[in-house]
Amino acid sequence: MHHAHGRSCGGRAARFSVMKSTAYPAVDTAIPDDGACTSAKRRQVMAAASELFMDQGFAGTSMDAVARKAGVSKATVYAHFASKEDLFEAMVAQGSVERFASLMAADLDTLGVEAALSTVAHEFMGVLTSPQSLKTLRLVMAEAGRRPDLAARFYRAGPARVLAALTAYLERSKARGDLEMEDPRIAAELFFGMIRGDLHMRRMLGLADQLQRTDISRLADTAVAVFLKAHRPAQR
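The structure assignment produced for this chain is given below.
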């Protein structure tokens, strides 16, 4: 998903195994390296593209405009991204890594299960209340009817990647005996679903723009408590 100069990244990347079951497609949860592979010019291009996509929409943004905004040549843009679709997908993937930094990091497993899930829940609440995240989702939804391929790229690079990372964490927690559940994938979906709740709809409609931080924390903490009540082994 993350390309540079037509070759795969050779730097460090943390990877978790996803679902072994064939019921769900595998999703790459690698964390893009921010070294040579993610060069300064690549980051410039992605930052410029992000601004333009948010302001002009996907259809209204051209690779020429991205090059001008980034202050690089069009050839440089294409050296990093073969198409506007690839650029958008890379932008979404990078945003997922940044917004879910704890979930995508190996040291999540060093926390207790309650602390780990609380961290993930608060990160997810941050995404639900982020103007940038809302703008991106609205952009994709506006294009989805005409561009189902773009919607698929967005889902693969963002929501599917995050869901796969939480599923993998729950699998590891189950293997350690910290949690009990029949299907970690379904449990992951329900965990995010509890947090999303009615808030996501209200945010999408612009009806919850003045949320208090205490309300956000209470929603996240309640979701974690309910989840642990359902999945923590009885003896714990």
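Interim note for the steering committee: Confidence is low (pLDDT under 50) at residues 1-37. The chain has ten helices and no strands.
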